[in-house]
Amino acid sequence: MKRTTIIAAVAGFALGGLAGASLFFAWPMPGHDSAVTTPSHVRFSEIQWPYPTDEWGQGKAFRCAAADCGVEVNLYIRAKIGFCNCQTGVSDDTELDRLSDFRLMGEKLSGLGPGRQINVAWMKGRSRAFAIADPYRARQSALAIAFNDRCDAIVATTLVAHDRPEAIEPSVIEFLNSEVVVHWAEVTLGL
User: Fold this and answer.
1) 155 to 9, 10, 135: CA distances (angstroms)
2) From the centroid of its chain, how far is CA 92?
3) CA separation for the pair 50, 53 (Å, rounded)
4) 116-120 vs 152-160, strand pairing mode
5) Does the chain have fewer CB atoms within 10 Å around its N or its C terminus?
6) Span 171-175, mean pLDDT?
7) Global pTM?
8) In 11-122, which ranges are E strands?
9) Considering only CA atoms, which of 49, 45, 78 is closest in space to residue 188?
10) Which residues contact residue 96 at a Cβ distance below 8 angstroms, ignoring those fewer than 6 apart?
11) Higher-scoring residue by pLDDT: 131, 62
12) How far apart, in whole angstroms, are the C-alpha atoms of residue 157 and residue 144?
């Protein structure tokens, strides 16, 4: 009788623990909604360029706080003078990949699909979403964006603190079309 009671108690405890764990891990936690939506109030603020100087020099860096974008979003833009294909511009993913600042995104990238055409002021280009697979980083993704004026390109790298960069892409493109960025591009490209 004692053995049966012990087995029943252990089985009840195990089933109760399993049921509790199932509820804990399956129940949606407040503030951790898996649905990612396009933020309605996006506000980028300029921050200091955080990367060492390389052959392309420093650019401009901007951050949109989680309170404004739903998650933290970091945007880095810089010019690559004379580096764009003068005949076709940034017309395909091969040219976008060639121009992109992949070193700013991390080393283990995986495209989340083909890129798409974008417009920034008078310039045309492409945008493409990437997943970043890094066991030492929190869940993160990126947008590689490049657009050109003749042979000169502007490259934008966006790091997003979730795995759905397409949700923030319209807001990033809108910011790239802002007076702040367009004026910087005109000055930087010597227009």
Assistant:
1) 64, 61, 27
2) 20
3) 9
4) unpaired
5) N
6) 95
7) 0.77
8) 44-47, 60-64, 73-80, 109-111, 116-120
9) 78
10) 90, 115, 125, 126, 127, 128, 144, 146
11) 62
12) 5
d(CA 109, CA 83): 23
Give per-residue pLDDT as tens, 62-105. Answer: 999 999 998 999 999 999 999 988 999 999 999 999 998 887 77
Strands (E), 26-139: 44-47, 60-64, 73-80, 109-111, 116-120, 123-132
Tokens of 183: 């004026």
- Give the pLDDT mean for 129-136: 81
- What tokens does 44 get? 């980028």
In single-letter form, the type of residue at position 120 comes to V
Over residues 37-63, the pLDDT tens digits come to: 556 678 999 999 998 888 888 999 999
**Are 160 and 140 in contact, with CB atoms under 8 Å apart?**
yes
The span from the CA of 42 to the CA of 37, in Å, is: 12
